[in-house]
Amino acid sequence: MRRALAIALVGLAGLTTAPGAAAQNYPTRPVRIIVPGPAGGGIDIIARKVVQHLTAARRGQYYIENHPGAGGSIGAGMAANSAADGYTLLFTNQDFVIHPLIKANVPYDPIRSFTPVTLVATAPETIAVTPSLPVHTVQELVGLLKANPGKFNYATPGYGTSPHLASERLFRLTCNTDVVHIPFQGAPPAVMATIVGETQIIHITLPLIAPNIRDGKLRALAVAASKRSAEFPDLPTLAEAGIPGHEVGFWVGVMAPAGTPEPIVEWLQSQIREVMLQTDARVGLDKLGFETIASTPREMRDHIRTEYEVWSKVVHAANIQVK
Question: Using an 8 Å Cβ cutoff, are 268 and 22 in contact?
C-alpha cells in the first residue's frame, strides 16, 4: 500500500495548482474541523499538526472542535449533517468504520454519508505484555494461553474499540485461545493496568505504549503491520512471528460531508498533501510513531471500504454488539 501511495503522490506532483484554480474562491471563511475524540487524543494530535501547518502556509483558516463520545459517532454525526460546502471537515479514525457495525441507529453511514478527502497518517498496533509474564514471543504467548484457558486477560480502551476487535480476531478467531477481555474507559487506564500486572496483555497502537516499551515497563512481542517499525526495528511483525494476515493499525483520515464539490475536495487534498510532505510535519509525526501518508481521495475511499469489509467479518464472527 505504501508503494502504491508513493507512486500516486509522484503522479500528482505536477497537479497541485489545478485543484486550487478550480476552487479559487475557497476558503473565504474559517473551516471547522470536527474531531470526534478528546483533546490530546491520537486524532486530535494529528488534526492539530495538520491545522498548524496549513495555517502557517497561509492555506486558509481552520479551527478545531472536539466532540467526543459514543465511540466517535457524536462528532461524526455532526459532520455528516453539516452543509456540504467544504466548511466542515471530519478528522477520524478506524472507529468511524467500526461503530456503525456494532451499534444500531448510528447517525451516519461511513460510506454513504461522507466524501473521502485523504488518509493522513497510520500507526501499527502492537502486542505487548506485562514484564512479569514469562513470554518473549507471540508463539510463547499463544502457547501459554492455550495451556491455561480462561486464566489470563487482555486490556483494551473499551468494548467495541478497534483494539478489542483486533484482539478478538487474533486471540480467539485465529489462535483459538480462551482469554478474558477487560475493557477500560480509554487507553491510559488500560495501559497502566497492564504495566502493573492487573491485566497481562494489551493489543494497542504503538505510539500509546512506545515510551513504556523503551522504559521496560511493557514487553513488546510484535507489531501488527506489514513491515517493522522504524522506532523498534528489532520487533518482528506478526507475519514474521508466524501469524500472517493480521495487519491492523490506528489511522487518521479526513472526510467531508457527502456532496462536497469535487474541486474543493481536490484542493483540500492537495494542500494537506503538500504540508504533510514537509520535513518538519513528517518528522514531528514520525517521532510520535506515526507514518505520514497523504493519499488521494480515491485511495481513502478504497481504504474505508476495505476496513468496512474486514471489521464486518470480525464483528459477525465474534458476535460483538453494543446495545
Answer: no
Per DSSP, the three-state class of 122 is strand
Paired with 223 in beta bridges are 126, 237
| CB-count exposure of residue 134 (10 Å: 0-12, 13-18, 19+) | exposed
Helix axis angle for 2-11 and 297-318, nearest 10°, is: 160
Write out the H or E segment, with its range, that includes residue 53.
helix 42-56
Asked whether the beta carbons of 64 and 48 are under 8 A apart, the reply is: yes
Q: In whole angstroms, what is the distance from residue 225 CA to residue 70 CA?
A: 28
For residue 283, which amino acid is it? V
How far apart are alpha carbons 61 and 27 in whole angstroms? 8
**Is there a contact between 116 and 255 (Cβ–Cβ < 8 Å)?**
yes
At position 64, the amino acid (one-letter code) is I
Enclosing H/E stretch for 272: helix 262-276
Handedness of CA 74, 77, 78, 79 (dihedral sign): positive
Which grid cell is 61? Answer: 483558516
User: Mind listing the domains of the chain with CATH numbers?
Assistant: 2-123+249-318 (3.40.190.150), 124-223 (3.40.190.10)
Give every CB contact of residue 77 below 8 A, 6+ residues apart in sequence. 106, 107, 108
Q: Which pLDDT tens digits describe the chain residue by residue (323 residues)?
A: 444 444 444 444 434 444 444 466 799 999 999 999 888 888 888 899 889 888 887 888 999 999 988 888 999 999 999 999 999 999 999 999 999 999 988 999 999 999 999 999 998 899 999 999 999 999 999 999 999 999 999 999 888 888 999 999 999 999 999 999 999 988 889 999 999 999 999 999 898 899 999 999 999 999 998 888 888 999 999 999 999 988 888 899 999 999 999 999 999 999 999 888 876 767 777 777 788 888 999 999 999 999 999 999 999 998 998 87
Contact 251, 121 (CB under 8 A): yes
